[in-house]
Amino acid sequence: MDHALPYLVGLIMVALAFDLLNGLHDAANSIATIVSTRVLKPQYAVFWAAFFNFAAFLFFGLNVAQTVGTGIITPEVIDDHVIFGALMGAIIWNLLTWALGIPSSSSHALIGGLVGAGTAKAGLGAVVWTGLIKTGSAIVLSPALGFILALVLVLAVSWIFVRKTPIAVDNIFRSLQFISASLYSLGHGGNDAQKTMGIIAVLLFSHGRLGAEFYVPFWVVLSCQLAMGLGTLLGGWRIVHTMGSKITKLTPMQGFCAETGGAITLFLATGLGVPVSTTHTITGAIVGVGAARRVSAVRWNIAKNIVVAWVITMPAAGIIAAIFYALARAAG
To answer: Which parts pass through the membrane (predicted)?
Structure first.
């Protein structure tokens, strides 16, 4: 097995690079609302989000990592070529959408890449359909739940504070946004970092380095959370602009409701082991708070473009992954 060690280490480095890129790409999910409402300056907001991204492993189990590691593609199909193809599909799609400022899903890029490379090797029989359907359903359910929760929160808060002046409400929710942004960053770190944990763990399992039973070693947990936090520190300013201001204008109260609705959605999904998109979730929540004000407050053409990116992310990443799997297989 020693001759395979350099390949194993190299692939782990690529996986951690994806995790760092995930943090970079999805930094906007954690900080767009708190920056757009001017509660925190961008340079402080990224430190705030990065800390809670890293600390997320203290609060959540590893159900999502288990799903990604064994519940999308059968572990027997996984080898170095499949993992390489999956990671390259996700990384290239992330870089493309990041360059264009499109808040697509890093999570579904990775899932699409895994499915694309796995089916390129072993056909559709390699797919664990229950896990893939559960993940695919979340493309619709997570933004819908974020939308509904944020909408309900805005209406409830508006009723509770109806006798307060707008300035007083702003001051209250400027403070409360520190809590809601922290919760969302915890949910982001808890759900997103686990996807890379699952990839690295199944890679180790395929190399026979976990024994007979699949599990996620603690050093994998720490390294993935650290890579996610470092990526968030690097920011993602193009997507911050789209998420924070192009979809709808936010007040501190609306920012609080969007982050809280999104955080509740992520906490539920992570507890159930569903690898959802933090990008989808916060976008749905932001649209929800905009629609609560008035339907015309949402720039629906921007939201439509984002939805189109959601739809094509998994197949696009899957096609790229299949190509890189074939290239890696041909290269030996």
So the answer is: 6-24, 44-62, 82-102, 109-132, 138-162, 218-240, 261-287, 307-328
What is the DSSP track for 168-230?
A: HHHHHHHHHHHHHHHHHHHHHHHHHHHHHHHHHHHHHHHTT-STTS----HHHHHHHHHHHHH
Sign of CA dihedral 68, 72, 74, 77: negative
d(CA 322, CA 116): 5
Query: What is the distance between the alpha carbons of residues 86 and 80, in angstroms, rounded to a whole number?
Result: 10
In this structure, what DSSP letter does residue 40 have?
Answer: S
Prediction pTM value:
0.85
Q: What is the DSSP letter of 125?
A: G
Domain that holds residue 165: 2-331
With beta carbons less than 8 A apart as the criterion, state whether 324 and 120 touch. no
- Among 138, 137, 93, CA closest to 113: 93
Using one digit for the tens of pLDDT, what is the confidence trace for 2-25?
A: 677 888 999 999 999 989 888 877
The strand pairing partners of 73, in sequence order, are 127
Find the length of the chain.
332
Q: Please spell the DSSP secondary structure of 89-120, one letter per residue.
A: HHHHHHHHHHHHT----HHHHHHHHHHHHHHH
d(CA 82, CA 114): 7
Q: Are 98 and 24 in contact (CB under 8 A)?
A: yes
Residue in this structure with the two tokens 């796995």, named with its chain if needed: 118
pLDDT in tens, 102-151: 767 788 889 999 999 999 999 999 999 999 998 888 877 888 899 999 99
118 with 82: CB under 8 angstroms?
A: yes
DSSP lists the bridge partners of residue 127 as: 73
CA–CA dist 40, 188 (Å, integer)? 19
Q: How many CB atoms lie within 10 A of CB 175?
A: 11
The DSSP output letter for 243 is I
Give the DSSP letter of residue 332. Answer: -
Distance in angstroms (rounded) separating the CA atoms of residues 315 and 327? 18
**Count of the separate structural domains present in the chain:** 1
Task: Say whether 308 sits in a helix, a strand or coil.
Answer: helix
